[in-house]
Target: Big-1 domain-containing protein
Amino acid sequence: MWNHRPEYQFSRYSLEIDEINRVQVDPDTGDESSEDIFNTDTPVIGSSDNLDHLAGLAPEDFLTMRLYLNQDAGNVLWEYAFEFLDLRALIDPDDLTLESGFIPVSADFPEIELSADLVGYANRSEENKEPVRMIWEAPNGGSLATQSEVDADQALFRNTLTTSRNAGTKHTVKAMLDTGASRALSQILSFQVVPGQPANIDVSTEGQMSLLKLGSVKVLATVKDAHGNSVDDNTAVNVTTEGPIELASEVVHLENGVLELEVVGTHYAEAANLVIRAGEVEREIQLEVKPLTVEIQSQPDSLETNTNYSAQLKVVDTQGSAVEGVEVEVYSDIGRVAETSVVTDAQGTAC
Model:
């Protein structure tokens, strides 16, 4: 079976070996001696060199050795020996390839400049510079500015790929040199669309909070780019509070573009603001710290001097639920109280 190889169209070589001599040098005298090991069952040149490995060499390897040994006296093959097709994306060097091996493309900037060139073509002699046609394909989506072009000067080609704006979409670009019977030289680049910069913050809240960190409000913030994609989880997010509130946890990070927060009230019952910033986008959420109500449940209708009386109070939130563990300060302007500070029990009461 014969395979067509372009570099063989001008010259053909056959490699025949009659003998292989192993040269040994006496370390003391420097004298050299040689031994023909061609017919040896296990020919070894050195302790780790096995000539059986020659069976693993491809025809291209022998051609390369010929070229490097300057056995192409007429330089017939040299002009073609080191030509190869190079395809690359003209992107910022800081845009590193993803772990998956794909080149990232921001949804904000879906146009990627491409460059393909036949390296070594420019060094050909003028009589060997035949026009070269480049074929471009985007087999799984995306659009290319051009599908085919011809150059007979530098074999340098430019193109533009326009990708989808949906994060996660993958695109492939294939550049092929049209050599007539077959497109032997080809290169492929793979791209993946990643979210753009933050553009919107959608917020929902659940629950209510009272002062003294009783109750809490759960805040769910979804950060998206201008095209509806949830932003990357490595996006920096900053959260600040204004007023008598604080975050129940200091850990603030995105997960699948979603930020979950829990907010509690502190020592005052009044309006407060929660501010979320992601990139250049800011969202302010208005919250309210609810008050607690102290109810005196049992007290005498009239008081006599030098007489002890008992009274019971109850602390409830805005929904009427009993609140446990609240310290209440008690005073009277018509008598003296035995305890100036009491703490509510599980029923929200204290005596």
Q: What stands out?
A: The chain has four domains: 6-81, 84-194, 200-290, 292-351. The chain has a mean pLDDT of 82. The two ends are 104 Å apart (CA to CA). Residues 6-81 form one domain.
